[in-house]
Specification:
Helices cover about 40% and strands about 20% of the residues. Strands 10-9-8-7-11-12-13 form a 7-stranded parallel beta sheet, with helices on both faces. It has a 6-stranded antiparallel beta sheet with strand order 4-3-6-1-2-5, with helices on one face. Strand 8, helix 9 and strand 9 form a beta-alpha-beta unit. Helix 1 crosses helix 5 and helix 2 packs across helix 5. The longest helix is centred in the first third of the chain and has 24 residues.
């Protein structure tokens, strides 16, 4: 495979913006109309995701040790869409047709490279799906509590109809009948519990059909569908170092799950949680954070605002506030929130002396396409 040529070819298609995915899906649906039912009625929130996901795969294609587990996980996850092994050749044919359409230097050699690469990707994803054949493609889960904390944030308690094994810090995709065939990612805010309940933190976002429906329309008794858990924001089981947790927005959810894991499973350690928001109104979970701090002598919670000077809370960007309370060079650090917050905090911690190998992140972005990367589509 000529990887540099493939990346250049992909770049030419991606440079056309929405035209490339629009051409791809038009080709796919015209040549294989049976695939149309796998996608939402409106493709407005779908079209850019194929090429974003493909770009993520290409960025990692030189590191097969990292890429193969991601592709296996993708294959398992795509079972929830009804994806079958027979669908992969159709997608591959439309992909190559799209790349050729937008590349005036397309050649037989380039076509051969893409054919080989896509064949490997499809083979690994199909294998991943087959390995998960003893598990359901999705779990139905009933909403048993819906607590609207602010105008745009709700905390949901959902109960899967069968055990859904997950690791604290992982994410789970979700679909609602209120927005059929639109899946979005949410990180449960608790470790696995004997009763199976999952706590989900949802923030409604402008143009976010799923998050808006979950916050403003969802009711107790609604049935959701949950996909298999993915992600890597999990505690290092070989480390007993104290923890530094940094959260922005609903990035608080996986941090609460890690705290819950320490409380339930140990080992005993100090945990410092820093939570940032623009204003005090952004702290939708303060009552429960106070409860956790009161119940666990090993936990310290610090809240900080960045855009409200008249506040009793600490003021400043959360990364700056974290460093004021250091040093943290002996800690394992976990950071979750929007892309800018995560990047800034990680940069500060690394400059402070925390090795990158001991910093784990989860980016909560509004437009990430899939579990191929750190980011999750939360809208």
């Amino acid at each position: 495979m000529d990887i540099p040529a493939m990346r250049a070819s992909f770049g030419k298609a991606a440079a056309h913006g929405d035209q490339a995915p629009l051409w791809f899906y038009s080709h796919l649906f015209l040549t294989h109309p049976e695939t149309r039912e796998m996608f939402p009625v409106s493709m407005a929130h779908q079209r850019d995701r194929l090429f974003a996901a493909l770009g993520d795969v290409l960025a990692r294609v030189d590191d097969l040790d990292a890429l193969v587990p991601i592709l296996q996980q993708l294959g398992q996850d795509h079972r929830k869409f009804g994806t079958l092994a027979a669908h992969y050749p159709a997608v591959g044919a439309s992909l190559l047709a799209t790349l050729e359409h937008f590349d005036d230097e397309w050649s037989d050699e380039l076509a051969a490279s893409w054919t080989e690469a896509y064949g490997v990707i499809a083979e690994v994803m199909i294998g991943g799906a087959e390995d998960a054949s003893d598990q359901p493609p999705w779990w139905e889960a009933e909403v048993v509590a819906h607590d609207r904390r602010t105008i745009d944030v709700a905390v949901l308690q959902v109960r899967p109809n069968a055990p859904l094994d997950h690791l604290p810090g992982q994410s789970i995709s979700l679909e609602s009948d209120r927005r059929p065939r639109l899946w979005r990612w949410y990180s449960p805010a608790n470790a696995p519990r004997p009763d199976g309940l999952l706590e989900l933190h949802v923030k409604a976002r402008d143009g976010g059909p799923v998050s808006t429906a979950l916050v403003r329309l969802a009711q107790v008794g609604d049935v959701l569908r949950l996909g298999p858990p993915v992600g890597h924001l999990a505690l290092d089981t070989e480390s007993d170092r104290d923890l530094l947790l940094v959260a922005g927005g609903t990035g608080l959810a996986p941090m609460k799950a890690l705290i819950d894991q320490v409380a339930r499973q140990g080992p005993p350690r100090r945990v410092d949680l820093f939570v940032g928001a623009r204003t005090e109104d952004g702290f939708y979970d303060r009552a429960d954070l106070r409860r956790l701090e009161q119940e666990h002598a090993w936990l310290t919670v610090t809240c900080a605002v960045s855009h409200e000077k008249v506040s009793s809370l600490e003021h400043g960007d959360i990364g700056d506030v974290v460093l004021r309370h250091g040093p943290w060079t002996s800690r394992d650090a976990y950071v979750a929130g929007n892309p800018a917050m995560v990047e800034d905090t990680v940069t500060r911690l690394h400059q402070h002396g925390v090795p990158m190998a001991r910093i784990r992140t989860e980016v909560f972005a509004a437009s990430r396409p899939s579990p191929t990367v750190d980011g999750k589509v939360t809208e």
